[in-house]
């Protein structure tokens, strides 16, 4: 059984000198070991990090993924090999993902840089109804929208810092092979598991790092890793 967090960022999202993610390779190793997550998709912004990270994270199944910055908002793509240019019209971005037989998921549709009411028109394979760093009211709106438009629901931690890796995941009962996982996700053959939502202190620490590069706010990396067992 794969416990797959579909939406995780790594330090490769820290591009153009802008710091936004504290999840380096060692942090990811520690967090997944502690939480029992055995599969991830590293969905860095406009960067296919899969080939760089796969040799460094051999204990995990990695699903190739990327978070594309379209003109209208963010879009998640999985199973693609060729990068998609940022700042394209979202419908063109979706078409380019489909050309590679990729999977399309709309993240946090009603939060910052969400695609909002355009979502259903894109005919995505799934839509996030739980995002661990989102506000609960916005996730509830996403869930309502998904139900009323007969769309498939999924979840993703959208982790930018250690505490949230594995905060939610999907259980996929298949072999750890990219094509099989993509097919199961496309057909909705998975179960959403929600563990926790990031708290205010979590978000303030992340904001401090993102805005000021204030690594001291995190103290030791492993001191912030939580045990998800209940």
| Strand portion | 15-25%
Report the CATH architecture.
Alpha-Beta Barrel
Count the beta strands. Answer: 10
Low-pLDDT parts are 214-230
Note the main sheet: 5 strands, mixed
- Alpha plus pi helix count: 6
What structural class do the secondary elements suggest?
alpha/beta
Give the overall form: globular
**Annotated CATH homologous superfamily:** Metal-dependent hydrolases
**Name of the top-level CATH class:** Alpha Beta
The chain-level mean pLDDT equals: 88
Summarize the structure.
This protein is α/β, with parallel strands linked by helices and 230 residues long. It has six helices and ten strands. The protein is globular and about 40 Å long.
What order do the helices and strands come in, and which of them pair?
Elements: E1 2-8, H1 25-35, E2 39-42, H2 50-53, E3 61-62, E4 65-69, E5 74-78, H3 90-99, E6 103-106, E7 126-131, H4 136-148, E8 153-156, E9 168-172, H5 178-186, E10 191-194, H6 200-212
Parallel strand pairs: 1-2, 2-3, 6-7, 7-8
Antiparallel strand pairs: 1-9, 4-5, 5-6, 9-10
């Amino acid at each position: 059984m794969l416990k797959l967090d579909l939406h995780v960022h790594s330090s490769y999202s820290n591009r153009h000198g802008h710091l936004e993610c504290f999840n380096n390779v060692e942090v990811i190793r520690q967090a997944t070991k502690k939480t029992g997550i055995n599969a991830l998709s590293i969905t860095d912004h406009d960067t296919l990090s899969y080939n760089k990270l796969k040799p460094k994270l051999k204990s995990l199944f990695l699903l190739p993924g990327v978070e594309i910055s379209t003109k209208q908002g963010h879009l998640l793509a999985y199973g693609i090999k060729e990068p998609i240019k940022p700042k394209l019209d979202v419908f063109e971005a979706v078409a380019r993902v489909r050309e590679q037989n990729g999977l399309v998921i709309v993240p946090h549709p009603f939060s910052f840089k969400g695609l909002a009411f355009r979502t259903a028109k894109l005919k995505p394979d799934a839509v996030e109804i739980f995002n661990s760093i989102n506000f609960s009211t916005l996730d509830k709106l996403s869930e309502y929208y998904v139900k009323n438009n007969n769309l498939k629901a999924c979840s993703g931690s959208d982790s930018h810092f250690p505490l949230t890796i594995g905060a939610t995941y999907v259980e996929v009962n298949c072999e750890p092979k990219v094509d099989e996982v993509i097919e199961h996700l496309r057909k909705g053959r998975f179960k959403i598991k929600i563990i926790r939502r990031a708290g205010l202190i979590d978000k303030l620490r992340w904001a401090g790092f993102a805005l000021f590069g204030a690594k001291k706010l995190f103290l030791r990396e492993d001191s912030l890793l939580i045990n998800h067992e209940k």
